[in-house]
Every structure is written in structure tokens, then in C-alpha cells.
Amino acid sequence: MKLRWIKIGLILAMGTMLCGCWDTIDVEEFEIAVAGGYDTPRSGEEGKVSVSALLAAVEQKNERLGTYSASTIGETRARRAYSESRHYSLAQLQAILIGQDLAQQGVRSVLDTNLREPRAKISIPVAVVNGRTEELLGSMIEKDGGKVSENLISLLQTIKKRAFVPQTSLHRFAVGSYTTGIAAAVPVLKTSNNQLGVEVTGCALFSQERMIAELDRIETRSLVLLSGNAAQGWIPFFLYKDGEMVDSGTVFAANQRKVNVSREGDVITFDIKVFLTGRLVEHGVFGHSESLHEEQHLGEIEQVVAGDLRQELLDFVRFMQEELRVDAIDITPYALARWRQEITPQLGNGFIEDVIINVEVDVSIKNTGEIG
């Protein structure tokens, strides 16, 4: 009899575990945001911010765009609640885009709202749009409405495997934006006539929550190499001898960085060494095809790549110290680790402008094949 009651108790217990949740909501009843875009309102619209949500294709064939303007980001969600019949969910948010105009005004509200949202991951990639995020997402929907989020998210998550572009998460963006004397870099997107409807044009720099500069692709490459952000990409070269071009081509390389910091009195010196390792993708020797097989010629290519890149990096360092006047290449922490008490008061008052920054570049290229 006792065993019988034990069996009945086990059956009842198992039955409770097999029951569904009492407050379950079917996925068809959700509006699932997979990307969020933040702009200033269009001319004539009320409010201070315009929020565009790229909504997943749950029952529909194509993804859709929903845009609301209001005084705050939270108020746009309230307005959405009055005009849409489904639950608005941020649990699958995969990208945050910020329009150029709003980025220049300040992104405190964007950071604050998304960092407070428990369903939003701090690893979400962030990008700036050259123009309006609403127009970029709308253009991508016209190109391929069923794969907008897939194309956009894949581009932001994998760009550093193909080009020297920073990949910036929400957390990293917030830390860099809030830290005195430091600039955070995020990729810049713009509408394009290519297959995806979007392309990366470089990166934007933020300091104290505001966008302070937009860099082109060459400047962005310099920033990535100097800051040590792991990436890889194609680098063209042109080899001259006696004033005449004797070779040109492309190498594909990955980067690393080493930083040493020293101090003499009040003068702090950073020695940055950039390492590039890769392969020769193509080149066309003018005149002598036999030189394709010479190790000396491969060494000459390494030297010209290293020399050209070093000059680009020195130009960027000068631009950073004289015009930006903030640390955009993440070297300040090396000095703080050794002289925090002395340096901290200077971070917002001329620290990076007064240091000495030396740069060296080491290039190692493998010759993986020839056309004989």
C-alpha cells in the first residue's frame, strides 16, 4: 500500500513538470527587434530622438522597420505600445546603430537605455551611420528584405577578419566613451549600391559621449594597427627603384602590437612596435620575371610595406596629438599601470599631447605561389 502511494506521488510530481508555463506568450504575438537605430527626429517632427526598430520576420516574408519619435527613448516605446498590437521584445537585439547627427550631439541616452535593459547583451556590436539609420535600414530592406539583419550583423561581427576596422561592443563603447582622456572607436556604415546595400567607410571616434571625428579607411587602418586591435586585411604596395616603379601588388596580413613605456623626469615615452605577418597575394614585376623567385625581392617588398605603413602611422600619431588631443590608440593604460597617481590629474588636461610616441613596423611576408 505504501509503495502504491509513492508511485502516485511520483506520477503527480512528473505531471506538474510536464505542464506548460501559465504565462506563455506565442512567438507570433511578439514584435522582435533584431537591430535598433537611433537618430535625431526629421525636420518638422516633435521630440529629441527617433528610434527605428528592425523587426524580425515572424509571420511575414520580409523584415520590417518601425520608427517612432519622442522626447526620450523610453517615450518612443510608450508610443509604440499605443499603436501596435504585439509585445515589443529586445531579447534578440543584435546590433545598435547611431545616426551621425545624434552621435555629434551626444549618445548618453542611447548608452544609458541599452545598458539598463536586462534583455540587451553588452556584447552587442555598435556602429555609426553616415546619414540616418532609418534610411540605411530602409535601403537594405529594399535590396533583400528577408536578410537585412543577417547581412548587417554578419558584416559587423566579421569585418575584422577582412579589413582593419575596429569591432566595438556596447560595453567597450560605453567604457571608452565615459573614460577621461580616451576615445572609443566604432565602425561607420553608409548606404551603398552593392549587393547588401551597405558598406563600411571607416570609423568614428567618441570622447565624453560625443562623436569628435570620422576617419577614412586609411586612417582607420592606422588606428587599428597602433591600438593593437587584432584584425587582418589587404595592403597594397608600390616598389620604386631609381625613380621608376619596378613592382606593385598586394599583401594580406594580420597585425599585433607591442608597447614599452619609459619615463625621464616629467617626459613619458611610448615605443610602439607593430608586427604584420601575412602572404603575398599578387604582384607584377616589370621587366624581369626571374625576380619573382628571389628572396631578396620579397625582402624589398617587406621593406616598402613597412616603410609606407610607418609613415602613415606617424601621420596619425601627429593628428591624434595635435588635433584630437585624446588617446585613440589605447596606450594610456600602460602609463597608468606604473604612475597612476601622477598621471591621473593630467588625463583631461593635455596628457597625450605632451608624451613622445615612437613607432616601428616589422613586416614578414610569405611567398605562397608564383605564375611562372
Describe this structure in words.
The chain is 35% helix and 32% strand. With 372 residues, it is α/β, with parallel strands linked by helices. The protein has 2 domains: 26-215, no CATH class; 216-372, Nutrient germinant receptor protein C, domain 3 (GMP Synthetase, Chain A, domain 3), CATH 3.30.300. The strands form 2 sheets. Strands 1, 2, 3, 4, 5, 6, 7, 8 and 9 form a 9-stranded mixed beta sheet that branches. Strands 10-11-12-13 form a 4-stranded mixed beta sheet. Helix 8 crosses helix 9 (295-324). The model has no long low-confidence stretch (mean pLDDT 87).
A few lines on this structure:
This protein has 372 residues and is α/β, with parallel strands linked by helices.
Radius of gyration: 26 Å
Write down how many β-strands occur, each being a DSSP E stretch of 2 or more residues: 13
Mean pLDDT: 87
Label the structural class.
alpha/beta
Succession of helices and strands? HEEEHEEHHEHHHEEEHEEEHHHE
Question: Which structural traits does this protein have?
Answer:
372 residues, 13 strands, alpha/beta, 4-stranded mixed sheet, 9-stranded mixed sheet, GMP Synthetase, Chain A, domain 3, 11 helices
